[in-house]
Amino acid sequence: MKRVAILMIVLMAAAACGGKKPPVAKPTTPPPADTSANRPPEPPTPVSEPQPVPVEPSAAGIDSRDLDEINKNSPFQPLFFGYDQSEVSPEGQQVLNANAEIMKKFATWVITIEGHADERGTAEYNLALGERRALAARNYLVSLGVPANRLRTVSYGKEFPFDPGHTEEAYAKNRRAHFVVTSK
Amino acid sequence: MNKTFLASLLTTAAVGVLMAQNPPAQPPPQQDIVTTKITGSGGGLPPKLAVPDFIALNSDAETAAAAKLVGQVLWDDLNFEREFYLISRDTYRTIPPPSSLADVPLDRWKELGTDGLVIGSVRKNGNDLVVQVRLIEITSGRSAFAKEYSGAASNPRFFAHTISDEIHQGQRNLRGVARTKLAFASNRSGDTLKGPVDMRGVQNIYMADYDGANQRRITVARTLELAPAWSPDAKSLAYTSYASGFPDIIVAEIYQGRNNRPARGSDRVHNFLPAWSPDGSKLAFMSQRDGNPEIYVVNRDGSGLLRLTNHPENDVTPTWSPTGNQIAFTSNRTGRPQIWMMNADGSGQQQITRETWCDRPTWSPAPFNEIAYASQAGGGYDIKIFDFATRSVRSITNGEGSNESPAFAPNGRHLAFASSRAGKYQIFTIDRTGENLRQITKTGDNRYPNWSN
Q: What is the dihedral sign for C-alpha A60, A66, A69, A71?
């Protein structure tokens, strides 16, 4: 939508009216040569605001009933982390060792490692924390011989908690790397 | 100051209609610029304004509703900046509405203690409305502001917003925010993601007027879209989108329906949390492309990628100083996250806060020089502001719910933020003094607010 330049209207009308106010007849300096009052009447100032156009939707996600079944009864154990931590603990290494064996057995699977955080960080900071957790899991799996090109990472920060509670128990469940089969 | 009373000038046909019963007196028009500024009655009090319903010059219901709405919204808009004391509209319902703008009972308004009266009229012109407005100084009867507007009848509120911004500018030399917009992420559609894990709700980008009116969905992809940021020209939104299966920054020209991806994300390169440089030429953002969350800058067209931080811990949430010479960010390199700042080339990194956990800075616009951030308190966060001038910190929220993601209004006098105080997360606005809390959203979860120029 075009915005037309704003035009001033000289419209200092006799708002006082009612005859109460005598017009002030005080001497003034001579008017400037070209004044707006000498121009033809000007149209009202247009006001308008543009309307947003939705950007095109793009294809998102993967639809596969087979994958849904696999992931519903996932063979992979989640990897849990400490508060504001992204290091793989000794218990976490056991989990990743087991997951790596399954990944090697199903050699065509592509796995997405989701990084998740509890709600105690801010939404923005947790996007970074989720990335670090997913990357930590990926790096460890690659060190165990899982091909890097079969591992994807994504951070969901605190957007998708597994337990919506506000307890330490819930937080512990939500600080995780979660493994999802995204291609067979 | 040269205050000159100008005799009425008939400049348009519309004015002619209004003035028909009261033909103009005929001294030749004088050409001084009117500089009448409404002042308070003394003691430095803010001027008292009254804004009665505008006069409907057509008898149909639509015009009558528009006239009422413009008056109400204008009252709210003028009240928002606290530069005027707005007299409660209930107290002047007994003053009969004038039949025209030239028929104002000054004595009645004087009795109420009114310093300035904003009156106006609304008439139909095809699919448009024509709105006339005047600000009258009650003591003198002088017109301090008078203007006529025309525009689509579909959004009468925009007339009020325009008038409010012009009165704040002309009377108080203040940039009002009545025509600004809020953008935020919301899951209110209730849609769920397609994908291998079920029952995850989508989030999309929405926008609203600064006062919460006209809430509209901007993006429609069935995916996760977060953290919108208005370009300085308010024509584009940059945000974090998972539409391709990985997080990347989309810059959407929302009035054109076009978008691009300047940070060039991929399966391996994830980009988050864009922040526009004040001149709109660059975006600062977080990416893990070098194996770890770091801060980068890229030109809007995708050229000139520059890495600013290089530390094995998390560097995240960049925000530019008003000059564009510096960037503040969050880093946990000393333990828990704290606010840091650096020059826009990455040099001179220094720590600003030393609290339990400080996160998500946003730098105020001039004339203030402040950083608002989320500071951990109790089980959640409060919004705090660090003032560079005094090196002091003040709290804006005080423990009601968790309060995150502060975003300054373009005049620096207000903030939007997300709070869980009403149950789900909702967008609120508040003054930089911590006063005048307003809830903007009510449906679904709404987070990641950002305030347009």
A: negative
In whole angstroms, give the CA distance from residue A156 to residue A154. 7
Band (B136; pLDDT cuts 50, 70, 90): very high
Is A180's CB within 8 Å of B196's CB?
yes
Fold of the domain spanning B13-172: Rossmann fold (3.40.50)
In a domain? residue A68: no
pLDDT digits (tens, 9 = 90+) for B143-198: 999 999 999 999 999 999 999 999 999 999 999 999 999 999 999 999 998 766 66
Given a cut of 60, is residue B12 above it in pLDDT? no
Quote the pTM value.
Answer: 0.86
Helix A90-105 crosses helix A123-143 at what angle (to 10 degrees)? Answer: 60
Answer whether B379 touches A (CB < 8 Å): yes
Residue A43 lies in a domain: no
For A69-83, what is each residue's pLDDT tens digit?
888 888 999 999 999
Query: How does strand B116-125 pair with strand B48-50?
Result: parallel
CA dist B370 to B122, B298, B415, Å? 42, 25, 12
Range of the domain at A95: 78-183
Position A55 in a domain: no
Query: Total structural domains in chain A?
Result: 1
pLDDT (tens digit, 9 = 90+) per residue, B305-336? Answer: 999 999 999 999 999 999 999 999 999 999 99
The enclosing domain of A131 has a CATH number of: 3.30.1330.60
* CATH fit for domain B181-451, picks 2.40.420.20, 3.40.50.150, 3.40.1670.10, 2.120.10.30: 2.120.10.30
Bridge partners, B271 (sequence order): B287
A interface test, pick of B70, B118, B159, B288 with most A CB neighbours within 10 Å: B288
In a domain, A155, yes or no: yes
Orientation angle between helical segments B156-172 and B61-80, nearest 10 degrees? 40
Among B11, B123, B249, B294, the strongest candidate for a mutation testing the A interface, having the largest count of A CBs within 10 A, is B11
The ranges assigned to domains in chain B are 13-172, 181-451
d(CA A133, CA A121): 14
**Is a pLDDT exceeding 50 seen at residue B380?**
yes
B447 within 8 A of B413, measured Cβ to Cβ? no
- Of B403, B393, B384, residue with least CA distance to B449: B403
pLDDT at A45 over 50: yes
Q: Angle CA(A41)–CA(A43)–CA(A48) in degrees, nearest 5?
A: 165
Query: How does pLDDT run across B211-235, given as a tens digit for each residue?
Result: 999 999 999 999 999 999 999 999 9
